[in-house]
Amino acid sequence: MHVDMNAFFASVEQRCSPALRGKPIAVVGSAKRTVVTTASYEARAFGVKTGMNRFEAKMACPQIIFVVGDNSKYIDASVRILEILNSFSPLVEAYSIDEAFIDITGCLAPFGTPSALAMEVKRRIKEALGLTCSIGIAPNKLLAKLASDMKKPDGLVIMDEASSPGVLEDLPAGELWGIGPRLTEHLGRLGIRTCGQLGRAPLSLLRDRFGVIGERLKLMGQGIYSNEVAPAGHEDEARSVGHSTTLPADTSEKGAIRRYLLKLSEMVGARAREHGLKGSKVCLTVRYPDFYTFSRQKTLPSHTNDTRAIYMSALSILEVMRLRTAVRLLGVSISGLAKGSGQMSLFEDDRRRQRLLEAMDEVNRSFGGYTITWGSLLDEGSGCDDETGVISPAWRPVGVKRINVK
Ligand SMILES: [Mg+2]
């Protein structure tokens, strides 16, 4: 079963403020240059979409109400939803802040049918949080995710082995979970546009073009998918840790770009340290105002989660990039992750450095992000005042405990 909350951020805001209910609203970040993170269904009816800037949203819907996102509300709602789902099955995988997979194979008996169980899940979430969700039920995660997407809002779609071939036959391949725009384009060049075509494509062709994932793609086209629901603690290790930010204004000023890189490196480093992860590759992503986006990565001499090491690599990538225009967005990530061994460094300098980072993280955890930060982030009008963006939808409330405050 895949549960996908409907217009999550916007719906949470509408629950919290009755004045917003039934109105076209858009949840945005507080930075000057912000985009719509989620639009309410009322706003979507006017054509307001995720990713539009304020101006575009206003053009589409003059009476739109912009609401600055409040991450703590969404995290709280997300954790409460997971608690509800966990009361149905122990096998719950928090996939993103508003989506989860639940293996319901072993817990159907009290409900009789999958749809009766799904209706009860919907009822409990609605009762506790006043929110609606779309649910898809299928033999595997790939089809369940597809099914939940087929009816919104408040949908329930059950897809079994008998009905899935009919659905997949003419479905554009890009609609499948995991097949992004780039892959869709590559498939298109091979003349493969639908899942039906993908499922029938010669394996040798797919292998030649896509290597080891070729076989996986063919199976996906046939609706076959073997990944199990992975509850917290059992999920695949994160493959990368990254942050990106749209700058308040396009800039080609080196100093400003460096400060953003340092800040992003610190966000990445702090998150990696929090999870005890170290990366062996640093990747820098740059987007130009025309949305042309590219990434370059660099392999490090050893695994690290040190802000400075990440920053220095990002900087060295930037130096060889030769930016051709001003920059709209910057992103920094590390990959090639390994669990930090916690191994003591041989060198006193490194040990001091490690203790410094630990102390900084500790203070920032207790007193809020950037209570202690790097001097270069405090430079005159660095413009680094935008850590008020709305939480990434990919954020997962793993290991977050809800605390009831009376
Ligand atoms: Mg959703």
Structural commentary:
By secondary structure, the chain is of the alpha+beta class. The protein folds into 3 domains: 1-138, 3-Layer(aba) Sandwich (MutS, DNA mismatch repair protein, domain I); 164-221, 5' to 3' exonuclease, C-terminal subdomain (DNA polymerase, domain 1); 244-378, DNA polymerase, Y-family, little finger domain (Dna Ligase, domain 1). Helix content is 38%, strand content 19%. The protein contains 14 helices and 13 strands. The protein has helices at 8-16, 41-44, 54-60, 71-86, 114-129, 141-148, 164-169, 181-189, 195-200, 203-210, 213-221, 254-274, 307-321, 348-367, and strands at residues 2-5, 25-28, 36-39, 65-68, 92-96, 99-102, 133-137, 156-158, 240-251, 277-287, 293-304, 327-335, 338-339. The strands form 3 sheets. It has a 5-stranded mixed β-sheet with strand order 5-6-1-7-8. The radius of gyration is 23 Å and the shape is globular. The relative contact order is 0.11. Residues 380-388 and 398-406 have low confidence and may be disordered. The structure holds magnesium ion. Magnesium ion binds next to β1.
